[in-house]
Every structure is written in C-alpha cells, then in structure tokens.
C-alpha cells in the first residue's frame, strides 16, 4: 500500500462517512437499521437511489480539499510570478463568496456528522479544527490570486486554469447538495413530515465558524470600501446643444443642401465610441416625440450593434417597434409588410450603432422598403466608422448627407460632468485638494463624456486624496485609448478595478444581455440571486434581495447604469403587487463591451448562430441565445450549446418558429437541465421540455402545457411573465419568493397559499372554504406587498386576528378590498362588523402605501389615528360610502399622495384650529378628491399654510364645498370641477419668512388647468393680472366649461404659446370660434375638443392653427350647417375665389370626429377639402347625412386609413368610397338604410336586374385590409377589397346567402382572419371556406344553432368556437367526431359548448 500523503486523514473521514451512511460497518451505530443515518441526534432515511449522489458528494469533498491544501504553495508562486506582468487580460472573479460558502457547508456537514459518532469524535475533533483554521488561509490564497486576475496585473493561463478546476469541483459538490435537498423536498411535499431538508444539515455552526471570516470580510466590503450616495446621478446632456439644433434643422428640412427630389434622406453621425452619439440621437428623438410630435407620422428607434448586418432581422425589429408585438411573419414577407407600414408615411428612423461596412446587398435589402416613405422622411444613422456612412450613401443615392462628427467636450463641460458624478450629494468646493487632482484627470479624459461619467463614478468611491491620486497616476492611462476599434476604452477599467468582487460578478453577468437592453432592476436582481451571485450572512447584511439591491444601486452610483424615468407617478399608476417598476436602466455599449470582456470565461451570448469568444466550454455558466435562424439550423445550434456542460443561466429570445422545434432544441441543447438555475423563454411558447428543469430558481415563461406540473420545481424562487392561473398544488413551492407580471388572480384556484411563507408579493382573495380563508396569511411574514380582496367573505373575527399583520415587519404596501362577497354565501357574511375586521388588520409601522376599497364601516380603525402610519407615503380610499370621518391625516408627516373617491358621508376635511402646526401636509405632492357630495367644510382653510410642495391638485363633484385653502404658486396641475366655491383660492409663495400671493397668471409652473365656470365669483385673471394675459404662458393643457361669458374665450387663450390640448364645453350663445388673429399664436396646439355647444356654427379662424392634429366635435348640432356656413366662412377667410382647394379646417388634421351633428353631405365635403394629412375620420349620430361626400371632395384624402361610421339613420349611399385610395380599416355599425337595397335584392331575387347588380359590385378598394360590420348585408354594396385580411361580422343570421358568398369569394386569396360574433341563429358556414387559401384564424362566438363544420383549407392555423352546442362539440371530438376529418389538420383548436347545453346532453 502506498504511503498516505498529507491530508489523508480528511480523506479517511470522508470515506468513512460514506461507508457509515450505508451502515457497512457496525462500529458506530450499534443496533440501528441499515438504511438509517444518525446526524444531529436525528434519524434520516437513506434510499437506495441516493448512493450515486452520496458517492459524488464524497468525491467532491475529497477533490476540492485536496486541491485547496495541495495548491497553496503553488498558488503563491503563480501569483508572485504574475505581478511582473501588465496586460489587458482581465477576468471577472472565478471563486466568489458563494463558492466559499459551499466549502463551509461541506466542512460543517462532516463536522456535524462527527459530533454524533463517538468512535471518531475523540480522534478527529482536533483535525477538523485544524481544517477549519486552514480554510481561511486557502481562501486568502484564492482571493490573492483572483485579485491579480481582476486588477489588470496578470496574464497567467495556469493560474486561471487552477482556479477553474477548483471552481468546477466546488460547483460539483454544490450540485450534490442540491440533488440531496431536492429529494428531501420531494419526500416532504409527498407528506413525510418527519424528514428534514438536507440543506439544514449544512448550516454553518454558531460561533467562529469556517465561513465567518469570509462573511465579515464581505460585510466590511459593503460598509467601508465604497461610498454610496443617497441619490443616483441622473442622465446628463452637456455641450451638444449646437449639434442638436443643427440635426433638428436637417430633419425639419430647413437646410439648403437637402435635395428636395428625394423622399428619404439619411444623416450619418460618425463619432468615436464614448463621445455621446447615442445620447445626442436620443435628445433629437425625444424632441420629435415631445416638442415636434406632429412632424413625423412614425418615429422608430432600433439598435444594430452586430458586425454583420442582417436586414431581415433589423426589419423585424422595426416592425416590432411600430406594433409593440412580436413579429411572426415569414422572413420573405417582412419587407413587404414594412413597405406597407411605411407607405405614404413621413418617418424618422434612428439606426443606432451600425458597424457593417462590407455587405452592400444587406444594406440594399434594408433600404428598399424604407425608401417608400413619404417625402421628408429621415434616417439618423449613428456609427463609429466613416466607411459605414459611405456604404449607406451608395444605397441611398443623392439622399445621404455629409457625415456629421463630434469633437470632445470643452474642458469646462467635461469637468462639470466629471464632478457631477464624483461629488454626488457633495459640494466640490469643500474639497480643494480633490479638485486639484481632478484637474489632472480632466486633462486625461480628452473630452470623452463616457470616461468622465465612469471615472467620476470611480472617484466617488472614496472622496480621499490617496484614492484620487491612484486613479490619476494609473498605468492604464498610458495604454492606447482607441475609441473606434476596441469594444471598450482601456481607461474604463479603472472603474471596474475599484469594484468589490461581488460587484464585479454583478457587472459581468450583464454581458448576456444585448446592447441597448432595458434592464428592470427587480428582475435583474432576482436573476443574480438565482444564479448564485448574491449571498448573505443573514446577520448584518439582510436578505439576498437587500444585498442585490445594494449592489445594483452601487453600480448605478458608479455610472455603470443610466437610469431612465418617465412622467408617470407610481402612485397614480396604481402599481399592483405583481407589477414591475416602470423605471428602467441602460448600459453604454462600451461598458457592455467591457462586461463581455471580463466575463468571457463565464458568460456567452449567441446571436445569429454565432457565439461570442469562448475560452473554455466547461467554464461557461451563463448564456443568452437569440435564435434568428430557420428551424432547419436548430440542430447545429443545439450541437454547439450542448458543449456547455455546467450552465447555470439559459436565456432564449427572438424565436418565432414552431413550438415543437424549440422543444426539441432545448432537449438536445441542455443535456444537464437539472443544473440550470435561471431559465428565460421569451417567445410565447408552450414547451414540454420545461419539465426537466426542476431545480430552477428563476423562471420566465408565458405558458406551460397541462402535462407539466410546476409544483415539482421545489427550488423555484421567482416566476415571471406567466399568463395563466397556477395549478392548485402550487403551494408545494415553499421557496417561491416573487411573482412578477402574472395575472392578479394567478393564485385564485390554489388552496393553502399560506404554505408559501417566502412569498413577498401576494394578491389574495378571501374565500369561505378551509384553505382559502384569511388565516392563510398568518405565517406569511416575508410579505412586502399585499392585496386582500373580498374581505366580505371573512369567516370569523378570530381568523382575522390570527393574520397578525402588525407583526409582518417587511410589509410596505397594503390593499384592503371588501368588494363583492361570494353570492351563494353573501347572507352569512353581511352580519360581520367591517369596522372590527378593519381594526384587526392593523398594518406594521413599515407601511408606506395603503389602499382601502368598499369599506362600509362608519369610522376609521383606531390604528389610523396613531403613529402606526408614521411612514405612510400614499393613501387611497375608494367607495367607503358610510365613512363619516377621516383619520387625522395632517399628522402623517410623510404623506406624498392622497386620493379620496366616492366618499358619500364625509362632511368636513382638514385639521382642528387647536392644532399647533403651521404647515399642513408639508411634503404632500399629489392630492385628489372626487365625488364627496356632502363635503361642505374645510377646517382651517384660512388658518394654516397648506401643501407647500403640492404639484397636482384635482377636486371634483363636491358641490357643497364653498372654500378650499390657498395653494402654492409652484403647482403644476390643477383641476377644479363641480364645486360650490364662493371664492377662488389664492396662490402663495414663501420666501425669507414672508408670504406673497398671486393669481393664475403667476402660476409659472402650471402645465394643466381644468375648471368649471367660476366667472360669477371673480374673473380668473383679475388677481395679480399684469400684462393682460389671464393664464400663464407655460400652460400645455386647458379644459374650460364656461357657461356665460363666452365672449372672453379669446382672452383666456391670449399668450398661451405652449398650449397643446384645449377642451371647451357648454359655450352657450357662441356662434363662432375666435378669429384668425386671436388663434394664430397657438402654434403648438395639437388637440381640440368641443362639446355641447348648441349654437356654434362657424369654425372662425380655426384653419390658421397649422399644428392641430385632432379635432373632436361632440353635440354641436349647428356646426357648419348649410344655412350659414358659406357666407360666414368666406367672409372670415380673405382668400382668392379660385382657391377651391383651400380648407375650412387646418390641413394638418390627422383625426376628425363628428358626433351628434346635423352636418350634411355638402358641409362634410367642405370640411374635408384640403385635409391631405387626415388619417382617421369618425362619423356618428349624424342623422342628416344621406351619403358620403362626392368623390371630388374625398379624392384628396390621400392619407386616410381609418373610416368609422355608426348610428347614421339616414345614410344610404357609399358610392364615393372608391376615392379613398389609402383606406385600410372600414367600420360600419347601425346604419339601417344602408342595407335596404341589398336586403330587398336578397329577399326578392326576381327584382334583381343586371344593371343594379353591376352597380352594387362597382369599384375596388386597393388598400383596404380590415372590415368591421354589424350586418352581413353591408358587404354587397361595398367596393371590392382586393387586399382584405380581416373581416369582423356581428349579426344574427341563419346562413350565408349566395350574394354574400359571391362577395366573400373575391377575398379568398387574401383573407387571413374571419371573426363571427353573436351568431345565435347561425346554422351553417359557407361551403366556400375550403377555398380560402390564406385563412389562418377562424373565430365564432355564441353560435348554439351551428350544426356542423365544413372542410377547412390547409392554411388554417387556429379555430376557436365559443358557445356552440354540445352536439357540435361532440362532432368535433378528436379522432371520433364526424367533423374531425374536416378540421384535424388545424394545429390549434378550441371548441367550447354552452354549459347549459352540456347539462341537457348529459
């Protein structure tokens, strides 16, 4: 026998443990059964199938520790040798703290076992202690080695290889631990309550354990190494205003060098990486999204950061951006569809970060459909390479401008940007020494904005001179800073170098996402946790989510992410527990390149079947795949992916092919699915192969087949994107922590939801049966967001008290809803005192958001009058109709948002005069009161300074309220409707201890104003009026209901040069809108709504508003009536009599609606003349309209795409429809006389003449794609739609007459979707359906009389029939039904009979 080497005692321990597990010797466990393991004084059953896993455990322990102990000296030598090298070969940490914790657990497992074996205890206790003392030394060596690899000071393949060998062995050991725990969880879920999880056996022991040193070091890393600020740096745009203005001039067509003969132009922005070209393009794009919204019909932003252009995929991206939907058309049809979308549209396309300068053919494919845009369309191209601009100029000949370039930022701007990120929350002038060092750094930045932000983030790490000096004097500044040909600037790694190992891991994980990806913080955090990149000691650092949140904020603080916010308030949006945040984050493409470089050993992204650089297949842990290839190539891709043996993350995106092919690909590609921790399948697919991934922690998928039980995923922590109702046995997922982007009723059918004790978000519906009652919430102490519905179903007050909400110390958001008890048990619930139930639902003091709905108690709960709500930021009360008083809200010092709605019993608001506080609601930003009919008093309205920070105030339907408090001059949105005010509020401003007041004209921040008529109280402009303007010039939205003084309308509009939306109603006695000189200043007005103006006849000078896009006329019956229109309009317009094309309305109109009007055919034609930009026309309740205007009026509507006609009782002719050459969608509803001719023809065939038949079928509609009608007999009088794709019919008929079938037959080669609604008497379908070669979807709803189905064409992909007879359902049964041969070829079939009919059949 060979002599044992050092460490053999440890091997013997491991081997003897293995022997004793199966009781091969009786020297320890005398008298114990052969299959019983004694650990911690408890017995654990060992099944025969556990033997392979336990052998793997032994081998993993043995190999891992042999490597650790034997390699200590070698590692030091490797590290020492490597310090002499300087290179670019940086990598992310290989052995992070999570790996060290696995080693801890393995040692602790052996230690725990030895404690119960008296034979070993005396002999090996000392050796185990030595081993525990050795582990920190091993970890120190590993840490030292990794520091050299992650600090740009080493290039040593041998060292990397050694670390990866150790990492592989540790991961293998962790797999064994996972496997054993999975089996124990499986037993436990099957009802064996005496079995404990294996993971519990390896919990670190108390005291100075093996992992404590590592944990304390990590804790120090969090608390001391990095400085984190209270706010994140926002997006900055500095020093590019001149270039921005120049580009906008180009896109507006104001530059003389533009060749007007071209429809589509391209402006290349050729700039080195990191210089801000994308930020500049984003500023221009936002300008046309917000300021000049009307200039382009379509605005598109796509990124193409790949070296090889793929025209088809890029066109697919453009279509998906336009529609917001996944594009599933075959690749050969994509250009055709894009051409149709852009035809006759003026568009702006930003093509960001293009690289391909060689593939002329692909560029031509991309540009061919783009060149069909309307005149004035632009492509803004950003690239680092001038050769790309030259390539595009060859394709868009004569339309490509000279490339625009950007220089570095001026030194002052660069310094400002650097300090903005380095001194977040601090005044730079307080650090004179750091400013001096900063000047040295500014010189080295060369005006590169990205470097300024990134280096600023690194400087912000420590505001200390030594730290700043080390960055200023780094050797990395001496390396070539190539901004064009490198994935990243070498100097960027200074920021990476300053990160802790844990932050480096988090950053490198982002490499699996594409450039320009919009990160959601919650999902990314959960993915990192699931992938094993986040770990907590459970003592000082909090939960894994707390650590992940901290790390993400640290990366944002150091400018690795840019945060993007929008104007929506999270409170106003009403974010439900399962919703994700609306804020998103992006990463600069060079930082994305840096992440790909440092993570190249561990992460891989496969795009167009081409992977990023792979160093070692066995080392790759995380991959993302964009499957853009055809199905036939999936096999080759699977052969590549299956080489990754140790995957932890698998992300699949952009696959729109066959579900079965994707299922087969996943099975072939993932040979070890039980190793996967994070699985993301973004395409909407139902995949059976998911069932093999039972050890997932994170799953994003939209649907699951019935054969897959999610209850077997015992480790699952996060489920996101699932669109269905979860199965009843989902309660077995004891580790489930988060549900995101799922329906609110996702857990509706699940009993015993209380077993999900780790869940942090929950929408719970109270039931009356055991397992569904409110006491299920009793042990769910990890909840952060909770919504409880149907509280009227509460079974007993005792169960409510058992919930013990006040002890749920993590809860921040709570919604309580008493709406609609179960009808069959409502009588037994009405006796419960809702006041007592509310009192029992006492939330913890951590609560920040509270919503109460349908509460019928008369008083608030006592806990609403205490400091329990001291942190409350948002309070919403809805339909609490019996509540007579409110809690003292003024005592809640953190409130930022209050909404009260439908509170029928509230009589007074405000605080008592005895309250000593000077300011009420000092931080409140948004306030809404709606439908408080008895409210008549606002206590203390004159005694205090209310709402000093209020931004939005909306109050309506409070008809008894006579006075409201003064409001701050800084208010931005104000709505006052249906109030009983005796005096309007004043507006105040506090400065230097004094208060000044002003009127509406002084509200310089006001953007939106909505008011009823208060002219009897006081003129709006009489308080503080100085320059004759009633309202402030910054106002963007104005809605006025003026009952008496309509002649003052022009005065109200005076000076409103920023107005975009205007709504006017009840202008009694006014016959004309203001004249031209009174409206010409409204150069930004886009939408005009006019309602209930019974005397209005003339549009006045409305035509002068060239920015107007939408005009809605409701209940203005005399508007443009024939008796007065001609004289008044011609008198107002000073134009030539020969100018017949001049329009009454603005030629910029895109949407025009007439509702409840007496407008005639001639008047409507006069309105439509000259509206060449009109895209949609809606006509409803116009009972004087006999026919559409003549062709001479309609032929100039070249942009009209949608025509909606409804409830026009006298309309009987549509002959001029053929003039609408761009019409895409036509909807006709409830026009009874329109079908008279056709109906009489069908009912009296003998009366049909050849002449009338010819007249009915005359003309075509070349562009029409969709028809929606409520009567099938409209069809014969419509022109023939040669490209009809969708037909929606809602009408009770028994069959399809021959005239209808003849009309339908003309669409058999184009029709794709046929929907038949409310067909209660339909007995048969058209026999010609078999000839519809393009039909893909057939939907029939409410057709109980339908007897059978004809043979369907092979093209049909989806058949849906709801509400049919049970007989028809039986005829369509798979393999046995009489109609099954006619439909068996259809991939997706859903046929559901009426429930009552089913019961009769039974």
TrEMBL record:
PROSITE patterns in the record: LRR
Sequence ranges assigned to domain R13L1/DRL21-like LRR repeat region in this UniProt record: 774-903
SUPFAM superfamilies: L domain-like, P-loop containing nucleoside triphosphate hydrolases
Limits of the NB-ARC domain: 242-424
InterPro entries, alphabetized: Apaf_helical, Leu-rich_rpt, LRR_dom_sf, LRR_R13L1-DRL21, NB-ARC, P-loop_NTPase, Rx_N, WH-like_DNA-bd_sf
Pfam families according to UniProt: LRR_R13L1-DRL21, NB-ARC, Rx_N, WHD_DRP
Residue stretches making up the Disease resistance protein winged helix domain: 512-593
GO biological process: defense response; response to other organism
PANTHER family reported in the protein's UniProt record: PLANT BROAD-SPECTRUM MILDEW RESISTANCE PROTEIN RPW8, TIR-NBS TYPE DISEASE RESISTANCE PROTEIN-RELATED
Family: Belongs to the disease resistance NB-LRR family.
Protein name: NB-ARC domain-containing protein
Organism: Zingiber officinale
């Amino acid at each position: 026998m060979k002599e044992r080497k050092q460490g053999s005692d440890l091997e013997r321990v491991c081997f003897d443990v293995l022997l004793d597990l199966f009781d091969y010797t009786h020297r320890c466990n005398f008298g114990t059964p052969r299959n019983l393991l004694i650990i911690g004084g408890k017995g654990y059953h060992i099944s025969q199938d556990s033997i392979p896993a336990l052998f793997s455990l032994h081998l993993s322990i043995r190999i891992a520790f042999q490597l650790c102990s034997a390699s200590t000296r070698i590692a030091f030598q490797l590290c020492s040798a490597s310090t002499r090298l300087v290179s670019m070969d940086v990598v992310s940490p290989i052995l992070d703290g999570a790996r060290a914790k696995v080693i801890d657990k393995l040692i602790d497992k052996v230690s725990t076992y030895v404690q119960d074996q008296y034979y070993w205890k005396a002999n090996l206790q000392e050796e185990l202690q030595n081993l525990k003392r050795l582990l920190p030394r091993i970890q120190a060596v590993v840490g030292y080695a990794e520091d050299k690899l992650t600090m740009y000071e080493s290039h040593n393949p041998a060292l990397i290889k050694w670390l990866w060998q150790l990492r592989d062995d540790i991961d293998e050991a962790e797999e064994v631990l996972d496997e054993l725990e999975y089996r124990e969880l499986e037993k436990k879920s099957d009802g064996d309550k005496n079995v404990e999880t294996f993971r519990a056996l390896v919990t670190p022991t108390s005291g100075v354990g093996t992992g404590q040193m590592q944990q304390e070091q990590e804790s120090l890393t969090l608390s001391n190494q990095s400085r984190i600020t209270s706010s994140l740096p926002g997006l900055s745009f500095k020093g590019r205003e001149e270039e921005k203005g120049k580009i906008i001039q180009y896109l507006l067509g104001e530059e003389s060098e533009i060749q007007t003969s071209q429809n589509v132009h391209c402006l290349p922005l050729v700039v080195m990486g990191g210089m801000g070209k994308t930020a500049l393009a984003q500023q221009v794009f936002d300008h046309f999204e917000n300021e000049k919204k009307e200039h382009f019909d379509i605005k598109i932003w796509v990124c193409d950061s790949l070296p090889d252009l793929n025209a088809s995929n890029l066109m697919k991206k453009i279509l998906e951006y336009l529609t917001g939907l996944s594009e599933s058309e075959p690749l050969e049809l994509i250009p055709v569809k894009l051409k149709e979308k852009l035809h006759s549209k003026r568009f702006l396309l930003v093509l960001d970060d293009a690289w391909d300068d060689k593939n002329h053919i692909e560029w031509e494919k991309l540009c061919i459909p783009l060149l069909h845009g309307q005149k004035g369309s632009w492509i803004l191209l950003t690239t680092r390479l001038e050769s790309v601009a030259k390539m595009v100029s060859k394709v868009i000949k004569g339309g490509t401008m000279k490339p625009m370039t950007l220089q570095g930022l001026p030194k002052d701007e660069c310094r400002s940007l650097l300090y903005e990120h380095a001194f977040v929350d601090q005044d730079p002038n307080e650090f004179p020494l750091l400013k001096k060092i900063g000047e040295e750094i500014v010189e080295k930045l060369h005006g590169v904005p990205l470097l300024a932000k990134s280096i600023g983030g690194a400087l912000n790490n420590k505001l200390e001179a030594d730290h700043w000096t080390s960055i200023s004097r780094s050797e990395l500044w001496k390396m070539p800073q190539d901004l064009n040909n490198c994935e990243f600037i070498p100097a960027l790694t200074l920021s990476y170098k300053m990160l802790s190992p844990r932050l480096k891991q988090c950053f490198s994980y982002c490499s699996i996402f594409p450039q320009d990806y919009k990160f959601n913080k919650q999902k990314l955090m959960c993915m990192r946790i699931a992938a094993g990149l986040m770990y907590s000691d459970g003592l000082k650092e909090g939960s894994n989510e707390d650590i992940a949140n901290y790390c993400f904020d640290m990366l944002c603080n150091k400018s690795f992410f840019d945060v993007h916010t929008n104007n929506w308030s999270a409170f106003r949006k009403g974010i439900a527990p399962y919703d994700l945040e609306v804020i998103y984050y992006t990463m600069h493409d060079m930082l994305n390149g840096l992440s790909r470089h440092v993570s190249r050993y561990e992460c891989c992204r496969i795009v167009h079947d081409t992977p990023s650089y792979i160093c070692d297949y066995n080392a790759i842990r995380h991959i993302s795949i964009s499957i853009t290839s055809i199905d036939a190539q999936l096999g080759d891709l699977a052969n590549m992916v299956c080489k990754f043996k140790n995957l932890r993350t698998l992300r699949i995106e952009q696959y729109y092919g066959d579900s079965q092919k994707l299922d087969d690909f996943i099975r072939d590609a993932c040979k070890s699915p039980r190793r996967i921790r994070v699985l993301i399948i973004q395409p909407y697919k139902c995949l059976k192969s998911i069932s093999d991934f039972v050890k997932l922690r994170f799953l994003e998928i939209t649907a699951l087949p019935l054969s897959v039980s999610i209850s077997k995923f015992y480790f699952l922590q996060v489920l996101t994107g699932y669109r269905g109702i979860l199965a009843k046995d989902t309660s077995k997922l004891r580790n489930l922590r988060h549900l995101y982007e799922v329906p609110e009723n996702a857990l509706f059918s699940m009993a015993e939801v209380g077993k999900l004790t780790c869940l942090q978000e929950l929408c719970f519906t109270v039931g009356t049966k055991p397992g569904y009652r409110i006491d299920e919430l009793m042990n769910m102490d990890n909840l952060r967001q909770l919504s409880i519905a149907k509280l009227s179903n509460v079974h007993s007050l005792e169960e409510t008290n058992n919930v013990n909400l006040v002890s749920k110390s993590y809860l921040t958001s709570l919604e309580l809803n008493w709406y609609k008890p179960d009808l069959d048990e409502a009588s037994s619930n009405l006796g419960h005192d809702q006041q007592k139930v509310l009192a029992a639902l006492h939330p913890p003091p951590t609560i920040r958001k509270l919503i109460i709905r349908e509460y019928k108690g008369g008083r608030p709960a006592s806990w609403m009058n205490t400091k329990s709500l001291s942190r409350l930021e948002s309070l919403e009360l809805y339909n609490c109709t019996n509540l007579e008083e409110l809690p003292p809200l003024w005592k809640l010092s953190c409130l930022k948002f209050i909404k009260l709605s439908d509170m029928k019993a509230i009589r007074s608001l405000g605080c008592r005069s005895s309250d000593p506080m000077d300011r009420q609601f000092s931080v409140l930003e948004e306030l809404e009161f709606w439908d408080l009919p008895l409210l008549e008093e606002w206590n203390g309205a004159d005694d205090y300074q209310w709402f000093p920070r209020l931004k939005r105030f909306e109050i309506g339907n409070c008809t008894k309220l006579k006075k409201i408090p003064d409001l701050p001059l800084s208010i931005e949105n104000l709505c006052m409707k249906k109030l009983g005010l005796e005096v309007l509020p004043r507006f105040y401003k506090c400065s230097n201890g004094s208060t000044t007041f002003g009127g509406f004209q002084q509200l310089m921040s006001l953007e939106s104003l909505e008011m009823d008529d208060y002219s009897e109280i006081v003129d709006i402009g009489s308080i503080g009026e100085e320059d004759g303007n009633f309202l402030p010039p910054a106002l963007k939205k104005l809605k006025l209901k003026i009952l008496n003084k309509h002649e003052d309308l022009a005065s109200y509009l005076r000076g409103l040069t920023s107005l975009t939306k205007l709504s006017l109603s009840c202008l009694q006695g006014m016959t004309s809108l203001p004249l031209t000189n009174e409206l010409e200043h409204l150069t930004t007005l886009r939408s005009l709504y006019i309602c209930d103006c019974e005397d209005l006849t003339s549009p006045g000078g409305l035509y002068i508003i060239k920015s107007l896009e939408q005009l809605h006329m409701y209940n203005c019956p005399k508007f443009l009536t024939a008796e007065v229109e001609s004289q008044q309009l011609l008198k107002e317009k000073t134009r030539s009599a020969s100018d017949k094309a001049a329009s009454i309305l603005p030629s910029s109109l895109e949407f025009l609606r007439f509702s409840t009007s007496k407008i005639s055919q001639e008047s409507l034609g006069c309105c439509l003349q000259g509206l060449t930009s009109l895209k949609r026309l809606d006509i409803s309740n116009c009972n004087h309209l006999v026919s559409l205007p003549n062709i001479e009026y309609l032929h100039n509507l070249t942009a009209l795409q949608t025509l909606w006609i409804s409830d026009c009782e006298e309309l009987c002719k549509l002959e001029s429809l053929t003039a609408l050459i761009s019409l895409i969608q036509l909807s006709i509803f409830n026009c009874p006389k329109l079908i008279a001719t056709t109906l009489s023809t069908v009912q009296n065939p003998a009366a049909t003449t050849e002449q009338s038949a010819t007249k009915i079928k005359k003309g075509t509609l070349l562009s029409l794609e969709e028809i929606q009608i409520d009567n099938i007999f409209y069809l014969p009088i419509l022109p023939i739609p040669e490209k009809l794709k969708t037909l929606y019919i809602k009408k009770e008929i028994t069959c399809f007459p021959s005239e209808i079938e003849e009309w339908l037959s003309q669409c058999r080669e184009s029709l794709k979707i046929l929907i038949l609604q409310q067909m209660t008497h339909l007995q048969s379908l058209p026999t010609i359906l078999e000839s519809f070669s393009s039909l893909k979807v057939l939907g029939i709803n409410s057709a109980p009389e339908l007897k059978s189905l004809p043979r369907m064409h092979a093209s049909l992909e989806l058949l849906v029939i709801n509400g049919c007879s049970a007989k028809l359902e039986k005829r369509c049964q798979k393999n046995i039904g009489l109609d099954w041969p006619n439909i068996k070829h259809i991939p997706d079939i859903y046929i559901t009979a009426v429930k009552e009919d089913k019961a009769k059949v039974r």
